[in-house]
């Protein structure tokens, strides 16, 4: 998957602080490898109410990936409405990432995502377009797991260290 570049950038900070460089955001995501201590996934229930859960994501080739078991509210919500938001608290930078969760079924892509999880200590195996594992992933319910990928459509970055700032990017 090619790394997308923003097509639009807006400074949301009203105090005169310059925009946050997209390169800083991309580097932070790649350095963290998607293992920031706090990732939250917001989905929408069929009746329109929000649903938010912590998820273990990995950042692979410009997209967040995560898993959901068959009985989870997350999976049920995504089957009804793929729009979602992932929020990230990272060193010096908080992010809000909007996109659509797409189920990954390509076995080569699934293996790349499994390898990213394995580098973080969880070792799923790819079987028949899903992940299987001996141990449950936090928040994912029991295996087998569907794997989802969220390519950013809109990202808002909020600087939490000098020089602070707030910027929105659209892709």
UniProtKB/TrEMBL annotation:
Pfam families: PNPOx_N. Keywords: Oxidoreductase. Gene3D superfamilies: Electron Transport, Fmn-binding Protein, Chain A. SUPFAM superfamilies: FMN-binding split barrel (SSF50475). Residues 36-120 form the Pyridoxamine 5'-phosphate oxidase N-terminal domain. It comes from the Bacteria. InterPro entries: F420H2_bilvrd_red/Heme_oxyg, Pyridox_Oxase_N, Split_barrel_FMN-bd. This is Pyridoxamine 5'-phosphate oxidase.
